[in-house]
Amino acid sequence: MNLLVGQIGHLSVILAFAAALVAAYSYFQASRGRALGEEDASWLRLGRGAFFVHGAAIVSVIVCLFNIIHAHRYEYYYAWSHSSNHLPVQYMISCFWEGQEGSFLLWIFWQVVLGFCIMKFNRKWEAPVMAVFSGVQLFLVSMIIGVVIGGVRIGSSPFILLREFLTDLPVWKMNPNFVPKDGTGLNALLQNYWMVIHPPTLFLGFALTLVPFAFAIAALWKKELTAWVKPALPWTLIGGGVLGVGVVMGAYWAYETLNFGGYWNWDPVENAVYIPWLVLVASLHGLVLWQKRRTGLRTAFALVIATFVLILYATFLTRSGVLGNASVHSFTDLGLSGQLFIYLAAFTVLAVALLVWRWKEIPISAKELNAYNPELWVFVGATVLCLGAFQVLFTTSIPVYNSFMGLLGIKTNVALPADQIAHYSKLQLWMGVGVALLSGIAQIMWWQRNTKETLINSLTAPTLLALLGTALVVLLVRYNGLTISPAYVVLTLAGLFGVLANFGTIFTLLRRGVRLSGGAVAHLGIALMLLGVLASSGYSSIISRNVSGLLYSREFTEDLNRDNVLLWRNETAPMHGYQLTYTGQYFEVPGVPGYVDKQFLYRTDDDYKAVARAPITVDSKVYYKTGDTVNILPENTYYRINYKDQKSGEQFTLYPRAQVNEEMGGLLASPAIKKFWGHDIYTHISSVLDPRKEKPWSEAKQSVLSVGDTIFLNDYFAVFRAVEAAHETAGLNLQKGDLALQADMIVYGEKRQYHVHPVFVVRNRMVGSLPDEAEDLGVRITFDAVDPAKGKFTFGVSTTQKDYVILKAMEKPFINLLWSGTLLMALGFGLSVRQRGGKGVLADTSAEAEAPAEASGQAVRPQPVG
After folding, report:
1. Tens of pLDDT along 70-123?
2. Half-sphere exposure of 134 (CA within 13 A, CB side)
3. The dihedral of CA 339, 343, 345, 350: what is its sign?
4. H or E stretch covering 805
5. First to last CA, the chain
6. Whole-angstrom Cα distance, residue 762 to residue 780?
């Protein structure tokens, strides 16, 4: 047992906590009673030094935690419960933040990085802002400190020993230093490259929401009620872009990993991230509104504070265990619910109290708004976003309400909606309509003087084109025998209007020689995303309908029997314009491109090792020779499905994967996707023969044959061609003096021939056999005996269920609009960050000042020059 690395890690956590406490107090004292930028130098130096120590301690914790994972130190509970000996390095990185403690540590690390950025780029605001930063770090580090004071446990340490966590196991009484040889491994659905990049992006987005919040609290504290907007705005733009990309990353991960056929399931954990992003986007508009038009400052304060509070609330939702029965992927409760609630309450009370205290002092605009003022539409857009966020927040919080009432001794039976997707989508659809329309209108109004005449002239072209495009869409939908609801007609119209209006704005600006508007690009992306959601979700069609007239199994659900196609191995079956052929099972072999046919591998007692039964080659390159030991990743079995278009003859191959995992409810299936420009073919396995169970073979029927004889095998027959010495037979490990004979038999199936090579072995005067099988046919042949005097050979023939897969396939039209819209949205945020960052936001009279780059669809125009 290596206890040193855990001790260093735990001491580093304690040091990080103490340093954050010193930094928070020092920065507070440096700024206390002094004007902004006139901090006490000695306290400021102490605060900086303490935060640097805090950062170094956090890096030390990270190094220690990754060490116990990478070095397979299973004496520690965190390493044992999240990793295993056979995980590739990238998934060991994923193990780091799979657990609660590691994800908290990732969040803390990003805030350390952002704290150093504040110290470098926002020196004037350093003391009050870093006081808030350090205070937040103090609370976050307390979540992983893992100490007991006065019988009260504070935090959960990632360095707890396995024997301290599982104290009831009798093995500790026999051997206190027992260390397991392997860990439990990483959840199968998390063994994906998105697990490596999605959580860091999402937690960076979480951390970035702290920056505008810290500026807002510092402004309220120091009574700098307007100056904070300029330095906070670029950080808010970055946060909106990163968090938005993080949300869509999770959607794409679900799309290509989960088999429910979509990218968003309105799971409470998904909602917990979506809600603060909507409010963050609304707050961004409030900040730009004040920066450009000197109005809406109170709105900006309230929404910036609400964003960070909602991030804390999301943390409470996902980590307190309150969603345990409502979400499929929330964290389990580590007994930190009370601590999380204190964390949430402390910053909520502090922020709201400061805001109320300074509310009357926050400047307001005396300007009256009318329909020709872009500022009015900013408030409308912010209201639309906040209403959408409130609907999701209210429903998602039902389990919290029930738990709270239960603590008060009041039993409630408020239940989540039976059909949550329909419940959320009803209002969110109309929010999307508002976003698309406002995004187009705002961009048009932003770049011109607005009168009744100019506004009508500017809106006429995109409106007429959008109406024409919508009519064409409706005709095409009905021509293809589909229906379109009035709500979808309105959303299509709004989305097309948003695309055309924002594209027109971009074209006009480029024609005038004005730099590209990040706001228009982001709004164009949002409109495309809405159209992509409408097309791919509203008109996703199942193309694997069961037209055979057969009931696959009475144990299957009606949907499974109706919406899936049965594929026997190496037999072609029709499916909605395609010919499908299931050609076998494959494994992932590290170092070998693609996948390796399972028939080329002889499995050993070690699940992660096999012996090559034939050369393993890819593009004429030999990776393993016959008899070589091959490292494999056996968790997932890949099923090779060949598609052939019946009209064009075009062919492609997909490898949907499945894993039989009883602990997670049976069959875990992940889809394979073929992408076309106008649609995706989305394929996943619904049912297979359990690859981990022994096949129920029939009792062997023996036959005595001579070379050249024919044997009948139920519906098939085989020809015994020859017997030869087996020199390199996988799995036999032949020794000197051993005798091994290999039979060469050809089994004639319905459509092809199969070579089967059973082996007869004599070792130490004992005989044995190594059977071989034609998996497609469900036939196994054993080489049981040899009569050299008569030239006779005895074979045993057993049969079992033929190999098959039951497969579901869907066609998702125009889903690329969603993903391309996401890229445009991110590009728009990036352009705005470049244009507003560094030198800060341009002056109000600049003709090239640009619209807010985010997703709600409003903007504030600069004061026209002239």
Report:
1. 999 999 999 999 999 888 888 888 899 888 899 999 999 999 999 999 999 999
2. 33
3. positive
4. strand 804-813
5. 77
6. 21
DSSP-derived 3-state class of residue 717:
strand
Rounded to whole angstroms, how far apart are CA atoms 4 and 783?
A: 57
Cα–Cα dist 550/846, whole Å? 71
Which residues lie closer than 8 Å to 541 by C-beta, 6 or more apart? 810, 811
Identify the weakest region by mean pLDDT among 43-47, 111-115, 336-340.
336-340
Residue reference for tokens 């027959």: 717
What's the pTM value of the predicted model, to 2 decimals? 0.86
Q: What's residue 691's pLDDT?
A: 62
The amino acid at 481: G
Please name the residues in contact with 794: beta carbons below 8 A apart, sequence gap of 6 or more. Answer: 702, 703, 704, 705, 783, 784, 785, 786, 787
| Pair 848, 535: CB distance under 8 Å | no
How far is residue 161's CA from residue 76's CA, in Å, rounded to a whole number?
4
| 768 bridge partner residues | 761
How much of the chain exceeds pLDDT 90, in percent? 43
User: What does the pLDDT read at residue 302?
Assistant: 95
H helices present in 71-192, as ranges: 77-82, 89-98, 100-121, 126-142, 162-165, 171-174
Tokens 């006779």: give the residue. 792
Residue type for 240, please?
G
* Cα gap 827→517, rounded to integer Å: 11
Q: Which two tokens stand for residue 711?
A: 């044997």
By three-state DSSP, how is residue 666 classified?
strand
Chain centre distance of CA 382:
28
Give the mean pLDDT of 578-594. Answer: 92
Q: What angle do CA 323, 324, 325 make, to 5 degrees?
A: 95
CA distances from 691 to 584, 599, 640, 756, 800 (A): 12, 13, 15, 21, 14
Residue-wise pLDDT for 787-827, tens only, equals 988 889 999 999 888 889 999 999 999 999 999 999 999 99
Residue range 495-514: average pLDDT? 85
Half-sphere exposure at residue 364, Cβ-oriented, CA atoms within 13 angstroms: 9
Q: How far apart are CA 271 and CA 392, in angstroms?
A: 7
Give the Cα separation of 684 and 672 in Å (integer). 6
Q: Are 133 and 118 in contact (CB under 8 A)?
A: yes
**How many alpha carbons fall within 13 Å on the CB side of residue 80?**
16
Distances (CA, A) of 632 to 497, 613, 617, 623, 688: 52, 14, 15, 13, 21
What's the whole-number average pLDDT of the chain?
Answer: 86
**353: alpha, beta or left? (left if phi > 0; alpha if psi -120 to 50):** alpha
**What amino acid is encoded at 221 in this protein?**
W
**Contact status, residue 271 vs residue 398, Cβ threshold 8 Å:** no
Distance between CA atoms of 398 and 11, rounded to whole angstroms?
40
If one compares 1 and 584, the residue with the highest pLDDT of the two is: 584
Residue 206's Cβ-side half-sphere holds a number of Cα atoms within 13 Å equal to 26
Helices and strands (H and E) in the chain: how many: 21, 29
Neighbouring C-beta atoms of residue 827, cutoff 10 Å: 18
H helices within 671-756, ranges in order?
none
Is the CB of residue 181 less than 8 Å from the CB of residue 88? no
